[in-house]
Write a structure and sequence with these properties.
single chain; alpha/beta; four-stranded antiparallel sheet
């Protein structure tokens, strides 16, 4: 996928300064789009938008297709008259971090109440809802049933449900659909709300010349609608337990490796079916976003297979993935593949060769470039044009936190030797280095634009809790900051999409704060 020369911001919607204790797809999201346009940033990168499961991680979802109901804006639903605005006063504030349990308890009942009210009225919205059910019933029906049954069983994993439901006995499923018909319709309406609000936000982005970069995790959670519905394409045994699971082997950072625990794919079964589940998954992802970051890209070439009864990743083995065959099928079914490969970490020559054959851009992270002499592929003088460069990703410390807590004196010396001393701080040093590089696309986590410290880090890999919760404070995004980013985009030739439109519409003029 050839990239335009551009720059963008990495910010998950949950991090927006929306009301209600968590970022959502409402007014704050649309204000952020205006900030991006003022800053001449033509890409907004998000993390997976699916409903999170274990650890509130967007990479551990209960569905590869459904949207996260916590992202639904109750303000937008109140505008439509589906929930009383007075009800919103009971929502938590949350400050600079999301308190997920508190937000779920307060917000989800209101989302369901709004859905029930919506279902009692008629009008054009109902017509769109009926069309939505017809268009997306292929994933919506099974997800709605899974979610209702999961709630009915206290959030237990599906393989702990009564055997007839866990094993999907036809009569048991028919009875459940009859018994919970009203709840199922509320689940469908909730997903309709998400899709409608996301489409409105994407349309706002399109009007401003901004593209959305989505994110697809290679694996899905065992406790998901996908595994429950499609046991035949996952490594699930007759006892309804995973036979082998995912992870990565021991390395210099971990003596026991990383035990992720996701069930692996039965790639032979998927190949025999024309990779239909993956085709549907990527078709849906490309309906929602303009291009897609493929997480753990190396797992498509080879993946680490761990016996399901192990507790660590030590006793695993490498197995060959589908490699080019999957991507040729996707290209045949979907056309051009606007993908970006997350090819970080210990990547083999075989993985690099596969990415290059498929002409998929890879990633470079500036923070990695100063760690040791072998990591200089992450510094600008080693980049190819068809590359996406980051100051850091959601898995890294913020650049200011990295500088204070994660670098040696030798690394700091190397940064100063190559990039000099920026009076604005090391975060702007790396932002300018990324923007001035030959890489066609550069992306900055918003924490780096704001110059925030380690307490604003989004995720610490292998830490089981206190992740994914950072939020932007109201008023943090200002016109001065937008103009600063716009000037960098201008001088590094990353704002071609905005030069004519910005002049016509006056973006960045005046002293208003875009996210106040």
């Amino acid at each position: 996928m050839p990239l335009d020369r551009a720059s963008g911001i990495l910010l998950h919607p949950t991090s927006l300064p929306s009301s209600g204790g968590i970022g959502d797809l409402g007014p704050a999201a649309h204000e952020f789009v205006e900030f991006l346009a003022a800053a001449r940033q033509s890409v907004w990168q998000v993390l997976p938008l699916n409903p999170p499961g274990y650890g509130d991680s967007p990479y551990s979802s209960i569905s590869a297709f459904a949207g996260n109901p916590l992202l639904i804006s109750l303000e937008r639903l109140a505008d439509r008259g589906w929930i009383g605005r007075d009800k919103l006063k009971s929502l938590p504030d949350g400050g600079g971090h999301v308190r997920f349990d508190e937000v779920r308890r307060a917000k989800l009942p209101l989302v369901r109440e709004a859905a029930a009210n919506f279902l009692r009225v008629s009008g054009s919205g109902r017509d769109r809802f009926e069309q939505f059910k017809r268009d997306y019933g292929w994933w919506l029906e099974e997800f709605a049933l899974f979610h209702v049954l999961r709630r009915q069983h206290g959030g237990e994993q599906w393989n702990h449900w009564p055997s007839e439901l866990a094993r999907r006995d036809n009569d048991a499923l028919y009875f459940a659909r009859e018994k919970f018909a009203e709840e199922l319709e509320i689940e469908r309406a909730t997903q309709f709300f998400f899709v409608e609000q996301w489409r409105a936000l994407r349309n706002a982005c399109r009007r401003r010349g901004i593209r959305i970069m989505g994110d697809v995790a290679i694996f899905v959670s065992f406790d998901s609608a996908d595994v429950w519905q499609h046991r035949d394409i996952f490594t699930v045994g007759e006892n309804l337990e995973p036979t082998v699971v995912s992870g990565v082997p021991p390395d210099a950072f971990s003596a026991t490796g990383q035990y992720w625990g996701n069930p692996l794919y039965r790639w032979d079964a998927l190949r025999a079916r024309g990779y239909d589940w993956w085709v549907n998954r990527m078709r849906w992802a490309l309906e929602q976003c303009d291009f897609i970051r493929l997480d753990h890209f190396r797992g498509f070439e080879s993946y680490w297979e761990i016996p399901g009864n192990e507790k660590t990743a030590v006793n695993g083995r490498w197995q060959k993935g589908p490699a080019d065959d999957l991507f040729h099928t996707l290209r045949h079914q979907l056309g051009d593949l606007p993908f970006i490969a997350e090819d970080l970490g210990m990547i083999t020559p075989e993985v690099h060769a596969m990415r290059e054959r498929l002409q998929i851009p890879g990633m470079r992270v500036l923070q990695f470039g100063f760690g040791n002499r072998g990591a200089h592929i992450y510094l600008p003088h080693r980049f190819d044009r068809n590359t996406v460069v980051y100051t850091g990703t959601h898995d890294n410390d913020t650049t200011c936190g990295w500088w204070k807590n994660g670098t040696s004196e030798e690394e700091r010396r190397d940064v100063r030797a190559m990039l000099g001393n920026d009076p604005d701080g090391v975060h702007w040093t790396l932002i300018r280095a990324a923007a001035g590089s030959v890489a066609d696309l550069c992306v900055f986590p918003l924490q780096d634009v704001l110059g925030l410290d380690s307490d604003c880090r989004m995720n610490t890999p292998s830490r089981p809790d206190h992740n994914w919760s950072w939020r932007v404070l109201p008023g943090a995004l200002t016109s001065d900051m937008a103009r600063k980013l716009a000037a960098i985009a201008d001088v590094t030739d990353r704002d071609e999409r905005f030069r004519s439109a910005a002049a016509q519409q006056g973006y960045g003029q005046g002293g208003e704060d875009f996210a106040a």
